[in-house]
TrEMBL record:
GO biological process: DNA integration; proteolysis
Basic and acidic residues bias spans: 47-64
Integrase catalytic domain segment(s): 638-728
Record-linked SUPFAM superfamilies: Acid proteases (SSF50630), Retrovirus capsid dimerization domain-like (SSF47353), Retrovirus zinc finger-like domains (SSF57756), Ribonuclease H-like (SSF53098)
Entry protein name: Gypsy retrotransposon integrase-like protein 1
Domain SCAN box: 170-246
CCHC-type domain residues: 305-320
Domain Peptidase A2, first and last residues per copy: 355-430
Length: 728
């Protein structure tokens, strides 16, 4: 019964609140109508609102505390200071919020105008709503209906929409700079306003303000990654931030520094300087002033001259210093001539003519003068766009020519130009451009007696081959080397291979996991292994059976004298790849691969995973000797009735005939091998169906038609024809 009475009381209170809000809106609407009439009709005298309110008791409503609206107005007037303010008919015209206005300045201006006009706090939101535009209006529209009549909540929603919060005020407070046109009092007021919006000291205690300042300084001393991670959790105090930082460092290990070190930190440099430098005539080290090690982050001032007092230069460079007479001794020498910058050039051969070519690393394409290329080789269809250093763009014809560079012939697509500074300009499309620009230095290789005997033995072995000394006719693109050059190349190769015998030519580059403890704990397949490790601690097991143990937080499997790391599921694929697929592993079978892995690693289901990995290895599938057996031949059915089974396909496109046909529909009988050809202008379904009807009218309907399942043969039209005629 009491619960029912409580619900009835709450319902009645809600009805009273709704009635009060409706009357407030009605009253505000009446005021707006009066204001509009006053603006449109200057001579119109406003009625006495207070008198109308007294005459209309339904307008003079009560607030939630039982006070009349007139009393609320009077209270707001007293809070505003004095009763100075414009009358109701002289309400200032407020400008709407534009995209160029700052929302904070706009709201501050509005609040000060509202106080000056002696508006009640409950009426502020009605004056603010018509002034909102863009993002601010969107923030108001998306608010709850009951909250949209509260000015403070509307203001918070607008600032939140513009991303204005305590962090924004903190950054502005820390990065505030002095405006040249402002006074010291204005700077103080700006700092005070930003500090108040950031800290909000009137709403907080002294301990809470201290926690905010300590939290800010604490975050500044952390690494950027850790700062972002902690700010995402939004800690309220520095103690919460410290706990979060401890969790972050524990989860990621101490391999990465968690504290922020500035670039200009020279503490290590000062310590080295302190240890090395010693004062003259004494064995004591030179002690630097400890205050000099502090970093000076103050902005650098322009230098001031101590002679004239002007900024921008120092005393030695002052223009007021008079020139002093000095004596100068010099040795007469010849006048040096400036040598022009040397251009990298080389000799090339095009169409049997030797030309000088410029090596241009800034050109993407090789260019040749037109007179050195046969006109029959020049292609005017394909154009080559080039852009000069001056920005001029041109389209040049192209040609495919053979260019001989250092006894090597290259087929190059070049651009043909009329005016060039050199006959040929070699671009980056030449594969040996860098070798021409930086030629290799020749060096004499020392040949010992052992190397000489080794090379003679190699030559004697090769001399037994037939046609060893015969002259082999070679093309122009490759020059025949002498025996001396061949011996030198063999000696160089032998010396090079001896130096690289111990080198690893196949480096293994793979990411090494650093958080193996976390990976093992997060793997659900290792839950049973951790449980068995706990049982081992309580009950000892003999050495012949496998047991699990945890060493430094890492789970191991121990059997006899082997200690195997239990691999989590996320890195098992990498272990399988290293033990089977890389060239060092040799693509061994599943048994040898399993034995190789068990020497250092283990996980539940190891043999099954190794067998699956070896079976799915592409290299093993290609070179495996166990190939699947070939499918046996299937006997073809004997067709004893002519035109019972037909084969159909399309040939073309071919050259167009006079009647416009470009395709041929070929139909063959599987019984008599009789072919039938129908000319077609297109391979669509309708011409094919027409040809089939012509054939069926002469030879009858077949039982089956075999096709390659083309789109025209599998169309809806032909399917309907087959279904209508009973053809498979």
């Amino acid at each position: 019964m009491a619960r029912t009475e409580g619900r009835e009381t709450a319902r009645q209170q809600e009805q009273v609140d709704q009635e009060r809000r409706f009357k407030a809106l009605q009253h505000q609407f009446g005021l707006l109508q009066i204001e509009v009439q006053a603006r449109t009709s200057p001579n119109l005298h406003l009625p006495d609102v207070d008198r109308e309110s007294r005459e209309r008791p339904d307008v003079d409503h009560l607030d939630s505390d039982g006070n009349s609206e007139a009393a609320v107005h009077q209270q707001s007037f007293n809070q505003a200071g004095n009763n100075i303010g414009p009358p109701l008919s002289q309400i200032p015209r407020l400008e709407k919020l534009s995209d160029t206005d700052e929302v904070e300045h706009f709201l501050v201006t509005f609040e000060r105008i509202a106080v000056a006009c002696r508006w009640t706090k409950t009426d502020w939101v009605w004056h603010l709503i018509p002034l909102l535009t863009g993002k601010a209006r969107a923030a108001y529209v998306h608010m709850d209906v009951n909250e949209s009549i509260d000015y403070d909540k509307v203001k918070d929603a607008i600032l939140k929409k513009y991303d204005v919060n305590a962090e924004t005020y903190r950054q502005k407070f820390r990065s505030l700079s002095v405006d040249p046109s402002e006074s010291p009092i204005e700077l103080y007021n700006r700092l005070k306003e930003l500090f108040g919006k950031w800290i909000q000291p009137k709403r907080k205690r002294v301990e809470e303000v201290s926690e905010i300042l300590i939290l800010e300084q604490y975050l500044r001393m952390l690494s950027p990654e850790l700062q972002v991670w902690i700010r995402e959790r939004d800690p309220r105090t520095a103690a919460e931030a410290a706990s979060l930082a401890d969790v972050f460092v524990a989860a990621r290990g101490k391999s990465k520094p968690w504290a922020w070190k500035p670039v200009n930190d020279r503490r290590s440099l000062d310590m080295t300087h302190f240890q090395q430098r010693k004062s003259e005539g004494s064995g004591k080290p030179y002690m630097r002033n400890p205050t000099s090690a502090k970093l000076n982050f103050a902005p650098k001032r322009p230098p001031i001259c101590y002679l004239c007092g002007q900024e921008g230069h120092t005393k030695p460079n002052c223009p007021k210093i008079s020139a002093q007479l000095t004596q100068l001794c010099f040795v007469p020498r010849r006048e040096g001539t400036k040598s022009p910058s040397s251009l990298k050039t080389t000799n090339v051969e095009i169409n049997g003519e030797k030309l000088t070519a410029l090596i241009d690393t800034g050109s993407d394409q090789t260019l040749v003068r037109r007179k050195f290329i046969s006109p029959s080789l020049i292609s005017t269809v394909k154009k080559l766009p080039i852009c000069c250093v001056h920005g001029d763009e041109r389209l040049l014809p192209t040609a495919n020519v053979y260019v001989k560079i250092e006894e090597q012939i290259y087929l190059v697509e070049v651009g043909v130009a009329d005016n060039l500074s050199f006959p040929v300009i070699l671009g980056r499309d030449i594969p040996v451009l860098l070798e021409l620009l930086y030629p290799a230095r020749q060096c004499n290789v020392v040949v010992t007696r052992a190397k000489a005997n080794q090379s003679e033995g190699i030559e004697h072995t090769l001399g037994t081959l037939p046609f060893f000394n015969a002259e082999i006719e070679t093309g122009v693109s490759k020059r025949r080397k002498s025996r001396r050059e061949k011996r030198q190349e063999k000696v160089k190769y032998a010396a090079h291979t001896e130096r690289e015998d111990l080198a690893c030519d196949l480096p293994v580059n793979f990411p090494m996991p650093t958080n193996i403890v976390q990976m093992q704990q997060e793997d659900a397949s290792l839950t049973e292994c951790f449980a068995r490790a706990a049982e081992v601690r309580e009950k000892p097991i003999d050495d012949n059976t496998a047991r699990y143990g945890i060493t430094k937080g890492i789970l191991y499997r121990e059997i006899r004298d082997q200690k195997q790391l239990v691999v989590p599921q996320c890195v098992r694929e990498m272990v399988l790849h290293l033990s089977h697929s890389i060239p060092w592993a040799g693509h061994l079978g599943k048994n040898k691969t399993t034995a190789r892995i068990k020497k250092w690693f283990f996980w539940p289901g190891l043999k099954v995973d190794v067998a699956r990995f070896c079976k799915s290895c592409p290299v093993c599938q290609k070179v495996s000797l166990r190939r699947p057996s070939k499918a046996p031949l299937q006997p073809l059915p004997v067709i004893d009735t002519p035109f019972e089974r037909l084969g159909m396909d399309v040939v073309g496109p071919v050259e167009r005939s006079r009647s416009g046909n470009r395709f041929m529909l070929v139909i063959t009988d599987y019984s008599t091998r009789y072919p039938e050809v129908f000319p077609l202008k297109s391979v669509k379904a309708k011409p094919v169906a027409t040809s089939l009807v012509q054939l069926f009218s002469r030879v009858g309907f077949p039982a089956e038609i075999l096709t390659d399942q083309g789109t025209n043969f599998m169309s809806t039209l032909l399917k309907q024809v087959y279904q209508l005629l009973g053809i498979k």
